[in-house]
Amino acid sequence: MSENKEAKTFKIVVVGGGTGTYTVLKGLTKYLPEVELSAVVTMADSGGSTGRLRDTFGYLPVGDVRMALVALAREDDEHERLLRDLFSHRFNTGGEMKGHTFGNLLLTALRDMLGSESEAISVAARILGARGRVLPVTLGNTHLVAEYDDGLVITGESLIDSPESERVGRRIVALSVEPRHPANPLALEAIANADMIVIGPGDLYTSVLANCVVTDVAKTIADSQAMLVYVSNLMSRPGQTRGMSVGDHVLEIEHYLGRKVDKVLYNDTPLPVKVLERYRLEGDEPLVVRDNDDLNDRLIRADLLDDVSAEPVPGDALKRSLIRHDSEKLADVLVGNCIKSNYNSD
User: Fold this and answer.
1) How far apart are CA 52 and CA 95, in angstroms?
2) Positive or negative, the Cα torsion across 143, 43, 266, 273?
3) Pairing relation of β-strands 263-267 and 299-302?
4) If 0-12 CB within 10 Å is exposed, 13-18 middle and 19+ buried, where does residue 179 land?
5) What are the φ/ψ torsions at residue 60 (nearest 5 degrees)?
6) How far is the C-alpha of 143 from the C-alpha of 159, rounded, in Å?
7) Domains within the chain, CATH numbers bracketed
8) Distance CA 63, CA 178 (A)
9) Three-state secondary structure along 160-177?
10) pLDDT tens, per residue, the chain with 346 residues
11) Is 95 left (phi over 0), alpha (psi -120 to 50) or beta?
């Protein structure tokens, strides 16, 4: 992008939560200040450290906010890197403290002191020197609700994300949030003014679409003139997307948003055999592009795989991805194939 010195700052909004949003944001920071970054993150999380703090204090969930802030944190010197790592530190002992991250506790304490989630996030962002904005999709306390193909309705992100064994073969046919609080006006404003909206990677229903079913979010994305990019997951998820292809994911996203996805980023590097064996024990399968997926020239195939397999963090009770996208590879493809092509077409 640097060769076009007169180009305006390119506004990118990443919609999602968890590790996927962290990965996209972290990679894109290398292109600052030519890009302006905002993250719109789900407020449906109800598991792990976040869920325990939410149940205890009644505040909005903080885990997805923390991860996005850490991704945007400055790391120019040893002090800044230590501060970033401190926010991610997870306690592995200490009774009730086990499983909590320092960043989650700090955000909760700031909310307690300041009386506002927005103020707490703002202060935490200044502490970390965050190079972008992190915006809760809503400032209302909501829970995710999923209706399945057999008519069962389950409330609670953690129950949807980690279903009972008899639910792993079921499909979600309708997703919503209760109660239906309004969206955060700042999140809607960021989406409306974006040049590019990136959704995914992340669990289709509990990370990506959990944002899109909040009041007015889908309509704002549909009305936006921004390029809409979906970063395809690497694996399916039992109880959510088993048997679904990349095209099936795109169709589901388009169903909830009411607009077409402009570009789809897909990793075409073979996944490690040993790691795949671990996934298959849980019923996961690699996400593939099928011949009948109507993606055509929207599909961008590239090496997006992180060379290092993630290992479980001591004290973390949640199931996490073992294979992930590489943040720099992902950012390079987003910039090279989406942003630059957009400039060249003007």
Assistant:
1) 13
2) negative
3) parallel
4) exposed
5) -65, 150
6) 11
7) 10-140+184-345 (3.40.50.10680)
8) 20
9) HHCCCHHHCCCCEEEEEE
10) 544 445 579 999 999 999 999 999 999 999 999 999 999 999 999 888 888 999 899 999 999 999 999 999 999 999 999 999 999 999 888 778 888 899 999 999 999 999 999 999 999 999 999 999 999 999 999 999 999 999 999 999 999 988 888 888 889 999 999 999 999 999 999 999 999 999 999 999 999 999 999 999 999 999 999 999 999 999 998 888 989 999 999 999 999 999 999 999 999 999 988 888 888 887 788 999 998 899 999 999 999 999 876 555 555 455 556 789 999 999 999 999 877 655 555 5
11) left
Residues in the chain: 346
Which residues pair with residue 319 across a beta bridge?
none
pTM (2 decimals)? Answer: 0.92
